[in-house]
Amino acid sequence: MKKVMVGNHAVSWGARLARVEVISAYPITPQTQVVEELSEMCADGRLAARFIKVESEHSAMAACIGASAAGARAFTATSSQGLALMHEMLHWATGGRHPVVLANINRALGPGWNIWTDQTDSLSQRDTGWVQLYCETNQEVLDTTVMAFRLAETVDLPVMIVLDAFYLSHTAEPVDIPDQEVVDVFLPTREAHRKLDVNDPHAFGALVRPDSYMEMRWQQQEAMDRTHDVFEAVEREWQRLTGRRYGAIESYRARDADLLLVTSGTITSTARSVIDRRRERGDAVGLVKVKMFRPFPTAALRAALSGVSRVAVLDRNVSVGHAGIFAEELRSALYDLPPDDRPRVQGFVLGLGGRDVTPAVIDRIIDAVREDRPIEREDLWVGVNP
Amino acid sequence: MSQLMIADQVPGDELMASGHLACPGCGAPMAMRMVLKALGPKTVVVMPACCWSIIAGPWPQSSLGVPLYHTAFETGAAVASGVKAALEMRGDRQTTVMVWAGDGGTFDIGLQALSGAAERNEDIIYCCYDNEAYMNTGIQRSSATPWGAWTTTTPAAHPESNAKKDILAILAAHRIPYAATASVAYPVDLLEKVRKAKAIRGTRFLHILSPCPPGWKYEDDATVELGRMAVQTRVFPLLEVEDGVTWRFTAEHAGDAVEPYLRRQGRFRHLTADQIEGVQASVDARWAALERRVANGT
Amino acid sequence: MPEAARSRRVPELAISSTSTLVTHTGSWKYMRPEYHDRVAPCNQGCPVGIDIEGYMALLREGRLTDAADLLLRENPMPATTGRVCHHPCESACNRRELDGAVAIHAVERMLGDFALERELAAPPVSPRGTAVAVVGSGPAGLACAYHLARLGHRVTVFEAAAEAGGMLRLGIPEYRLPRVVLDREINRIRAAGVTIHCGVRVGSEDLPWGTLLARFDATFLASGAHVSRPLGVAGETAIGVRAGLDFLKEVNRGGRPSIGDVVVTVGGGNTAIDCARTARRLGARSTILYRRTRAEMPAIAQEIDEAEREGVEFVFLAAPVGFTLDGDRLRAIECTRMQLGPPDESGRRRPVPTDERFTLPADTVLTAIGEAIDPDGLPLAGTGTAIPTDMWGQTARAGVFAGGDLAEQPRSVADALGAGKRAAIGIDRHLRERAGAPLEHREPDALRLGGRGNLSMTRWRDDDPVPRVAPLNEVVTYEDLNPAHFERANRHEDWSLPLEAAVGGFDEVNRGLDRPAGLAEARRCFNCGVCNECELCLIFCPDVAITRRNGHGFLIDLTYCKGCGVCVTECPRGAMLLTREGLS
User: Fold this and answer.
1) Which residue of C3, C8, C16 to mutate against B (max B Cβ within 10 Å)?
2) Distance (Å, rounded) from C-alpha B180 to C-alpha B244?
3) Which of B150, B273, C335, C338 is most buried, judging by how many CB atoms fall within 10 Å of its CB?
């Protein structure tokens, strides 16, 4: 069934198809439509779930953790300040190995107040141990939401789905909604292999001494390592059922390209159109879209970028004091390539706080990279009027 | 009956094991033990950071015979809300979900989540065992620390200058079905309150005074004695509040002078006679207000 | 940590796989709690040497038969003592500090009556060859005979009077001790294997001392003190002036002597009160003349109260100095007003005469200022007021023991019963030693309940039916208790016959407590010093280190006990001690 819907509702529909059992959320622009739609679904019986309307995002994540610890499928959604407030509990979810799924609608952090898109909120949670999956379209949002649960419950890690404020969250697109029976086959009811169970009582999360703490963190790392293959398998099955898959990364018109853009989120779509026009002119440019930020798809990116002479990373985010975050991650991933295969990686910080990234902006970036001008700094801030 | 022969009123089953890491004479395990006796094995405990995070034992140990979830300081009521929702979604309406939090996790950092849960009337029992300071971190003041007390952050030259927060009134103001105070020195009263709470649906709050030998600075053997003195001096009256409106005393309060109670504790050693008189006056005033509340119903 | 758990791989998250029992927190402690039963002050205070606390504990559990058995091991006549004893146990009772002593006398009486009603008695012991004579069947003689019989000796009691009982029968009025009660208790003593010959005055030609001493392996002298002390006032031989004890004996034998309308009794002890109340019952106006004040009266307070209720008048601070006679007929008693001076050797303030004189009209004056012994009729070198004995009751003459009012001891039924028991132990010890089969060495101190108590027969026999936990022979004071665990509960007061009925005859006045009230009163007992398994130690233990032991009492798991001492502090009854770790 196809339906035109905004990205936020695609999240809600994904959660509904996944038959989430406990939802706990706190309203924040631009996430609100997610929880409004879910509230309607719970109220009219389309979704059998307990919706805990908590008093903060911190409690939202805490409640999801509690529900997940007790064996239920738990879901929340937030943005920006809300995600930042959850930070402590994001760590708790991963250390406790709780397969919670969270949709984060990228929004800039204040002050000053800014409700528009910016990836710095989700990327600031880089080290919390969450799987992070960035989306480009509303279809991808719905599909990723369903797949996130399957992935999370397979590797016992929480998964964050990330989508841009307004460009996706409030933009309507036709979305194919898979049949519930199809999803039910793909994602059966969660059967937690350990949980808070009065018939098999255990304590969870007690003090762990230095002699064992690292072993537990190492196993988190192992689970992340495993996630690459598991995600691929999950996508393959989703493709079998729905015909759609996205990949941890996606190479677009990258063959023979001497310059590749690296993008994530909705900038990717804009970049695709720029590349299409340039290819028509015979310009050998392409792009690599990064969907999975954690675990970082190092091997795939090395394979995709090895031997390409120039790489331009478009970062709608920044680690102030250093660089755009995708760019810095990518540089470290490629560093071990043989020097001849190692592309020159140029980072561009742009679009912060929802500033428009137009095809013209991307064209100027490609031109600038092509000119091979000596540059003052590794990462250029695009369009800043100091 | 002329003696408190309480043996028959206390269930024999133990859901708390020896070998836990509470200090000698600690009131907190006494409280936990009685509460679990009343709740029974179909109980899930959610425990934000507090002394009990240590008492329960380091991994891979647990001193409890029921499931226990250790969680972050401010999240007791929220995690419990999630646990309860999950159990209900899976068709389990019998299991009691209990938060076991200290005064810091209740009066201070956890108050927002507690208020949220209470306002939503989550079907949980929230127990605050109150030792009147951040004891686990080494005796720092909390908003449960009484006026005049020494702590490491309120040194004797500048002791605690604020009155203890009236947490019971705060919870009662949420109009939850049941809120009560209790004391480790009155185990039967405590058991009765837990049993009563267990039979009610919605948010139930128990504020249990739990004297602390190292934090209050008294001999290890006097924990129950101090708990008793706190009640009999009316410093910590035993009360219950139904639906936020019906206030009731659940014990006789002799109205003993507070001075012996204060003098028994090193944390009040620096108090002058005038200051003790001031404490007495404030205890008397609070008691008079409580009596009015009990009489008026609000 | 168990080896299996250690060798296992660390799990992917902190999930428990064992309890905290792997941590032996007992290594933290530097103090160690221990259970030690100690001695209740009532037990030490009882001249009979009864395990009062023990039977109270059994009554708490509703075990009346066991309680009666325990009582009868130490006291052959509880229904009697429950009525007439001056109960120093109650003066010692720690509960006085809270809300009034336990009415021990009333509980004992209830239990004594229960034993009579159910005809409870110890199974008879088949006697060995040793024969013991007891001279006198008052409480000392009966107690000695009873205990000796239960120790396996053949005992014969010789009583000069027509019936057994001594002062219990002759001195105490029926309204205080119904004869049916006394008879049944004496019958139970007989049933224990005691032969009583009445109407035999030892030392007379019927049974000369030489014959008696030759026939028996040992002899206990308990013939009492029957010689009334004279007032030392001119005219006291006049008609109308008589010894109060003689008056009581006459009435108690069924006589109803003519005493006129106005009777004055001189004295302040129980005999004086008995005389005055008996005189009321014979229709007289009855007055007690006492040289000190009410506070110094040695009589049982309750008896004084009863006398007052019955209309006996009291003239305090007055002593007789003469009699006004009309011919040979008494008209009045002449008195001098006294005042209290400094304390005398008894600790009471000495009465000092003043110049003030007054007279009280009197048809009869009864003197009740004490009795002396008659040393002439005894097979011992004559002494003054009392027969000297050692602590076992042994006199200067080998094999001859003495006790009761004959000996140097307080003149009370309880002291007499205690002396009889003490002599029984002394005789048993003497005869065993003579036969070359002494009981294992037992010092008198080891047989006492507390430092000052009377001897315990169960300790002598070593057959205490009450389990004791590491007992210490120390008395528990009120400060040793934790009164917070005792709810206030009013003492149950005895029920008394209505006034008209009381004064109108010789029916028993004090009716004690019925069984439910007696059992409730028993539950007021603190059980000082003895664990009654209230479980407070177990309940308050923060470390769950205390468990019930099979059978009786508790176990402390020292593997986990941190030595906080909460159990010791909260023990309501001082049955636990905290000792320094490693120094025990």
Assistant:
1) C16
2) 10
3) B150
As a whole-number percent, the residues of chain B with pLDDT over 70 amount to: 97
Within an 8 Å CB–CB cutoff, is residue A221 touching chain C?
no
Name subunits touching A (3+ CB pairs < 8 A): B, C
CA A100 to CA A89: how far, in whole Å?
Answer: 11
Pairing of strands C364-367, C241-243: parallel
CB contact under 8 A, B219 and C15: no
Distance CA C246, CA C275 (A): 10
CATH number of the domain at A2-242, please?
Answer: 3.40.50.970
What pLDDT was estimated at residue C437? 82
Cα torsion B239, B240, B241, B246: sign:
negative
Contact across the interface for A67 and B86, Cβ inside 8 Å: yes
Question: Is some CB atom of chain C closer than 8 A to the CB atom of B19?
Answer: yes
With an 8 Å Cβ cutoff, are C15 and A194 in contact?
yes
Decide if B30 is inside a domain: yes
Strands C364-367 and C262-266: parallel
Residues C262 and C213 in one domain: no
Domain A249-381 listed as CATH 3.90.79.10: no
Does residue B1 sit within a domain? no
Q: Residue C20: closest CA among chain A residues belongs to which residue?
A: A203
Number of inter-chain CB pairs under 8 A, B vs C: 148
Provide the pLDDT confidence category of residue A379 given band limits of 50, 70 and 90.
confident
Minimum-distance CB partner of A212 among C10, C16, C17: C10
| Partner A, chain B 110-149, Cβ-Cβ below 8 Å | 112-113, 115-116, 119-120, 122
User: Cβ neighbours of residue C4 under 8 Å, at least 6 residues apart?
Assistant: none
Across the interface, do B24 and C17 touch by the CB < 8 Å criterion? no
Range of the domain at C110: 53-120+487-522
Whether residue C460 lies inside any domain: the answer is no
Does the bond joining A112 to the residue before it have cis omega, within 30 degrees of 0?
yes
Q: Which residues of A touch B82 (CB under 8 A)?
A: 22, 24, 52, 62-70, 74
Query: Which DSSP category does A243 fall into?
Result: S
Top-confidence residue, B34 or C384? B34
Looking only at the bridges linking them, the beta strands covering B96-101 and B43-48 are parallel
The CATH number assigned to the domain holding B197 equals: 3.40.50.970
* In contact, C360 and C332? CB cutoff 8 Å: yes
Domain that holds residue B145: 13-296
Beta-ladder partners of C32: C579
Q: Do B116 and A54 touch (CB under 8 A)?
A: yes
User: What SS3 class is residue C354?
Assistant: strand
Condensed to tens digits (0 to 9), the pLDDT of residues B180-196 reads 999 999 999 999 999 99
Residue B75 Ramachandran class (φ > 0 left, ψ -120 to 50 alpha, else beta): alpha
C5, closest residue in chain B (CA to CA): B60
Residue A87: closest C-alpha in chain B: B72
Taking contacts as CB-CB distances below 8 angstroms, the residues of chain A near B44 are 70, 196, 198
Report d(CA C88, CA C410) in Å as an integer.
12
Residue in chain C nearest B222 by alpha carbon = C566
Rg (CA), chain B: 18
> Which amino acid would we find at residue B91?
G
- Closest partner CB to A95 (pick from C10, C13, C16): C13
- Residue C1 has what pLDDT? 41
C584: which 2 tokens?
A: 């025990």
- What ipTM does this complex have? 0.96
Rounded CA-CA distance C503/C505 in Å is 6
Give residue-wise pLDDT tens across range A33-76: 999 999 999 999 999 999 999 999 999 999 999 999 999 999 99
Range with the poorest average pLDDT among B50-54, C89-93, C121-125, C270-274: C121-125
Q: Measured between alpha carbons, how far is B235 from C167 in angstroms, rounded to an integer?
A: 60
